[in-house]
């Protein structure tokens, strides 16, 4: 039978969550994490908060590219090319 | 082989997010090499207390089947039938049974004949237990802790009844609390095993 | 300049990379445009983790592209093009960061801390029957209205949180979670081990989550 008083605490859980999401835990550790989620709404909510956080981070990349910056780079390229880029 | 499977409402795996097909249709695991790789997971009877969720199904497993980390892993599985007895009311009953077990553990710690002992012994259900523990005036740290586990478990029963959607968590945590309380009362980590066996027996008798 | 639509995190295969390098050597403008579309934004974001000031970060990126162009003939393909470009940027940004030290915010100077993912006072302390378990449990964000979670204000808060991260944590978080790079690509680009990458990612994510929690609950549970 599994699950005993050596069960993961919430304090330990929040420290291994990244490894869990990165699939870097061995099967026994993964089972410990999942068994803890089953009994702990706090940690279950924490996982969802972390997922939402990662989702929001992914939305940072939706900023439009800076047009002025791009124009400068194009100018930079053309100047480099005109400066006798060897073929 | 036949086994058990807990799923979220709508036949969804809690950790995989996978939607299980209708009963009879096989769900293929990912066929990974490592144990616990995307493969189908299921429970033996003795694993039930630790994986509780909203739906309980009988499931058939096929291919390589192994026991790993307190669950079964198989190449594929299919739902056979929903165990209708497993509902919020049943989970609350299990939770209460565990709360009373935690109470029994507290009784082995509290001095016989003390007001605290008498109060807890008189409790017949979770409401009474929750109330009794909240009114206890124990000064001994060990007594307080033992009673505290029983009180926590009692409150989880009330939570399960108040919000049936949360019943699986309350049921599961009470299994854990009762096991933890037994180990504490007996000052022996291996008491957990016996407590879990009691829980499995309780479930088996009612779900068969 | 028409940006070529290439999804973030895509890795040109060996074939595509060789073709890009060859085209660049020929002075092919569309090859340069494609490279900028692929890496321009992550380069700028990474530069900002080193030098905070947007204008300075842009200069660092421009210097990087120039170095890429000037060095493209000598590029032997021992590492991937992507790794090479980002290593150039890292080196330039670090040099520039040292020069700009006067204007660097305090947090950029701080060593990466060993802070716990969550404040210790959120958990039950020694002596409690549930030592190590939540004293003030995290809330269920699924109960938040979706437009609150995805609002401009929330995203701005996330951006702020990234900017206060120690630089090495910000590097990893930006490349992994903002730009969607794979772990091994990040390790190559930053020259760090997988274990180190995960630790930095862990600390960064934990801090951003905490900042978000604080913002969403107007002063998180005590």
What can you tell me about this protein's structure?
The complex is a heterotrimer of chains A (87), B (208) and C (222). With 87 residues, chain A is mainly alpha-helical. Chain A has one domain: Arc Repressor Mutant, subunit A. Helices cover 68% and strands 0% of the residues of chain A. Chain A has 4 helices and no strands. In chain A, helix 1 packs across helix 2 and helix 2 packs across helix 3. The longest helix of chain A has 18 residues. Chain B is α+β, with helices and mostly antiparallel strands and 208 residues long. Chain B contains 6 helices and 5 strands. In chain B, strands 1, 2, 3, 4 and 5 form a 5-stranded antiparallel β-sheet that branches. The model of chain B has no long low-confidence stretch (mean pLDDT 94). Chain C is an all-alpha fold. The chains are: A mainly alpha (87), B alpha+beta (208), C mainly alpha (222). Chains in contact: A-B, A-C, B-C.
Features:
heterotrimer; A: 87 residues; mainly alpha; Arc Repressor Mutant, subunit A; C: 222 residues; 0% strand; elongated; disordered N terminus
List the helices and strands and how they pair.
The complex is a heterotrimer of chains A (87), B (208) and C (222).
Chain A: H1 10-21, H2 27-39, H3 41-58, H4 67-82
Helix pairs in contact in A: 1-2, 1-3, 2-3
Chain B: E1 2-7, E2 27-28, E3 40-42, E4 55-68, E5 71-82, H1 88-109, H2 115-121, H3 126-135, H4 141-162, H5 167-186, H6 191-207
Antiparallel strand pairs in B: 1-4, 2-5, 3-5, 4-5
Helix pairs in contact in B: 1-4, 1-5, 3-4, 4-5, 5-6
Chain C: H1 14-25, H2 29-51, H3 54-71, H4 81-99, H5 106-109, H6 146-149, H7 152-163, H8 167-178, H9 183-190, H10 194-216
Helix pairs in contact in C: 1-2, 2-3, 2-4, 2-8, 3-4, 4-9, 7-10, 8-10
Number of helices of chain C: 10
Q: What is the distance, rounded to the nearest whole angstrom, between the alpha carbons of the first and last residues of chain C? A: 51 Å
Radius of gyration of chain C: 20 Å
Shape of chain A: elongated
> What's the architecture of chain A in CATH terms?
Orthogonal Bundle
* Spans where pLDDT lies below 50 across 5 or more residues of chain C: 1-10, 106-110
**Largest interface, per-chain counts?**
A-C, 47 and 59 residues
Form type of chain C: elongated
């Amino acid at each position: 039978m599994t699950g005993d008083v050596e069960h993961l605490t919430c304090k330990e859980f929040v420290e291994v969550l990244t490894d869990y999401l990165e699939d870097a835990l061995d099967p026994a550790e993964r089972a410990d994490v999942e068994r803890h989620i089953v009994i702990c709404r706090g940690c279950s909510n924490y996982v969802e908060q972390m997922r939402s956080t990662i989702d929001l981070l992914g939305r940072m990349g939706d900023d439009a590219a800076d047009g002025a910056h791009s124009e400068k780079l194009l100018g930079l390229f053309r100047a480099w090319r005109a400066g006798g880029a060897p073929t | 082989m036949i086994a058990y499977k807990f799923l979220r409402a709508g036949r969804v795996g809690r950790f995989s997010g996978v939607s299980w097909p209708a009963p009879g249709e096989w769900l293929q695991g990912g066929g990974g090499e490592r144990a616990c790789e995307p493969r189908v997971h299921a429970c033996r009877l003795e694993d039930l207390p630790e994986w509780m969720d909203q739906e309980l199904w009988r499931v058939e497993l096929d291919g390589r089947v192994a026991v790993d980390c307190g669950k079964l892993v198989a190449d594929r599985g299919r739902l056979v039938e929903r165990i209708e007895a497993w509902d919020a009311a049943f989970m609350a009953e299990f939770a209460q049974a565990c709360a009373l077990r935690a109470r029994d553990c507290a009784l082995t710690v509290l001095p016989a004949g003390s007001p605290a002992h008498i109060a807890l012994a008189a409790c017949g259900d979770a409401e009474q237990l929750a109330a009794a523990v909240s009114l206890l005036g124990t000064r001994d740290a060990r007594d307080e802790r033992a009673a505290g586990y029983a009180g926590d478990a009692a409150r989880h029963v009330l939570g399960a009844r108040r919000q049936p959607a949360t019943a699986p968590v309350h049921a599961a945590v009470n299994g854990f609390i009762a096991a933890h309380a037994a180990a504490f009362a007996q000052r022996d980590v291996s008491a957990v095993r016996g407590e879990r066996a009691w829980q499995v027996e309780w479930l088996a008798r009612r779900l068969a | 300049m028409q940006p070529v639509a290439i999804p973030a995190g895509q890795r040109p295969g060996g074939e595509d990379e060789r073709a890009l390098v060859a085209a660049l050597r020929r002075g092919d403008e569309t090859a340069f445009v494609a490279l900028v579309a692929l890496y321009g934004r992550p380069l700028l974001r990474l530069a900002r983790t080193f030098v905070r000031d947007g204008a300075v970060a842009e200069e660092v990126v421009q210097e990087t592209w120039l170095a890429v162009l000037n060095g493209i003939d000598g590029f032997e393909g021992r590492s991937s093009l992507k790794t090479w470009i980002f290593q150039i940027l890292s080196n330039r940004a670090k040099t520039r960061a040292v020069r700009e030290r006067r204007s660097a915010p305090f947090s950029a100077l701080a060593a990466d801390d060993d802070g716990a993912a969550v404040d210790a006072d959120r958990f039950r302390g020694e002596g409690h029957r549930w030592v190590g378990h939540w004293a003030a449990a995290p809330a269920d964000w699924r109960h938040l209205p979706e437009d609150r979670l995805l609002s401009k204000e929330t995203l701005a808060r996330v951006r702020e949180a990234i900017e206060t991260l120690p630089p090495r944590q910000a590097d990893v978080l930006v490349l992994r979670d903002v730009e969607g790079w794979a772990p091994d690509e990040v390790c190559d680009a930053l020259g760090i081990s997988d274990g180190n990458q995960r630790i930095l990612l862990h600390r960064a994510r934990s801090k951003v989550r905490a900042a978000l929690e604080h913002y969403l609950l107007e002063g998180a549970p005590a």
